[in-house]
C-alpha cells in the first residue's frame, strides 16, 4: 500500500494534476490540511472514504494515521496545499514513514507563487532582467530561518524575490529588500491566489506595505519583488530567435 503526498494546488479546485485527481478518487483514506485545501477536492474521495482534517493534529498523530492505514492495506491520499516540494512539512513525515517501512510517493502540484505570477500576468524570469528566482520566507512563530538566509543576504543577487507567508511582516520585508533593490523596485502581493476571494496588490517597495495594510491582508499571501514585474524593452529570448540554428529532429 502507498501513502501519496499530493500537491493540492494554490486554492482553485481544478488546479491539480490528472494524476492527483485519479489517486484521490481511488484512495479509501484521505488526510487534508484544513482550510488550505479546497473542499471541492474532497468530493473526489470515493464513497465511504475516511476523510480526516489534520489542522488540529500533531505530527505524531498524523503519522500514526498513515501507518495505521498502511497496516490495514489502504492507500492514503495525503493532501497538502501548493506543491509538496516547498514549505509543505512533507520531509518530516517522509522520514518517519521510511523508518516505519511504509511506501510513499510524491505527486507534484501547482505552487502558490506560480499561481500568483499568473494572476499578475507576469513571467518571473525575463531576458536581460532576471533569470533567477529566490523562494524564501521570513521568521515567524514557525521554524526559525537558517543563519545567513535573511532577506538582506538573499537579496544581494538582485534576483526575483518571492516571499511566502510574509504579509504580516510586510514592513520588515520592504525595509530589508530596499537596501539591495531600491525603493522604486516593483513589488506585488497576491493573497488567496486562484481563489474567488483573491486579492492582487501592485506597487513598489516604497508603497506596497501601506497597500497591504489598507487591504487587510495578513495571511495566505505571496510577496513578489523584482524588476521583472514592470520590465519593458527587454531583449527577446534566444529560444525562438530567427538567428538560432535549428535541427529537423
Describe the 3D structure.
The chain has eight helices and ten strands. The protein has two domains: 3-107, Tetrapyrrole methylase, N-terminal domain (Cobalt-precorrin-4 Transmethylase, domain 1, 3-Layer(aba) Sandwich), CATH 3.40.1010.10; 112-230, 2-Layer Sandwich (Methyltransferase, Cobalt-precorrin-4 Transmethylase, Domain 2), CATH 3.30.950. The radius of gyration is 20 Å and the shape is globular. The protein is 28% helix and 20% strand. The mean pLDDT is 93. The protein has a five-stranded parallel sheet, with helices on both faces. It has a five-stranded mixed sheet with strand order 6-7-10-8-9, sandwiched between helices. The longest helix is centred in the N-terminal third of the chain and has 13 residues, at 59-71. α2 (39-42) links the parallel β2 and β3 (50-53). The N and C termini lie far apart (42 Å). α3 crosses α4. It has helices at residues 18-26, 39-42, 59-71, 90-100, 112-120, 151-154, 170-181, 208-215, and strands at 2-7, 29-32, 50-53, 76-80, 103-107, 133-137, 160-164, 186-191, 199-204, 221-225. The chain is α/β, with parallel strands linked by helices and 249 residues long.
Amino acid at each position: 500500500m502507498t501513502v501519496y503526498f499530493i500537491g493540492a494546488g494554490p486554492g482553485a479546485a481544478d488546479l491539480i494534476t490528472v494524476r492527483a485527481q485519479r489517486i484521490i478518487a481511488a484512495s479509501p483514506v484521505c488526510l487534508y490540511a484544513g482550510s488550505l485545501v479546497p473542499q471541492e477536492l474532497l468530493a473526489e474521495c470515493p464513497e465511504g472514504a475516511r476523510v480526516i482534517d489534520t489542522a488540529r493534529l500533531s505530527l505524531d498523530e498524523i503519522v500514526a494515521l498513515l501507518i495505521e492505514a498502511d497496516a490495514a492495506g489502504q492507500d492514503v491520499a495525503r493532501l497538502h496545499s501548493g506543491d509538496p516540494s516547498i514549505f509543505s512539512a512533507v520531509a518530516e513525515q517522509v522520514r518517519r514513514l521510511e523508518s516505519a517501512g511504509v511506501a510513499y510517493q510524491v505527486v507534484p502540484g501547482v505552487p502558490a507563487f506560480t499561481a500568483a505570477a499568473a494572476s499578475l500576468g507576469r513571467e518571473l524570469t525575463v531576458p536581460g532582467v532576471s533569470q533567477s528566482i529566490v523562494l524564501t520566507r521570513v521568521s515567524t512563530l514557525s521554524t526559525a530561518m537558517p543563519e545567513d538566509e535573511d532577506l538582506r543576504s538573499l537579496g544581494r543577487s538582485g534576483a526575483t524575490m518571492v516571499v511566502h507567508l510574509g504579509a504580516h511582516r510586510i514592513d520588515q520585508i520592504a525595509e530589508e529588500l530596499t537596501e539591495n533593490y531600491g525603493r522604486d523596485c516593483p513589488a506585488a502581493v497576491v493573497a488567496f491566489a486562484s481563489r474567488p476571494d483573491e486579492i492582487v496588490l501592485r506597487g513598489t517597495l516604497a508603497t506596497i506595505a501601506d497597500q497591504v495594510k489598507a487591504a487587510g491582508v495578513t495571511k495566505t499571501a505571496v510577496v513578489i519583488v523584482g524588476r521583472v514585474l514592470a520590465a519593458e524593452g527587454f531583449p527577446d529570448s534566444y529560444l525562438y530567435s530567427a538567428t538560432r540554428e535549428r535541427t529537423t529532429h
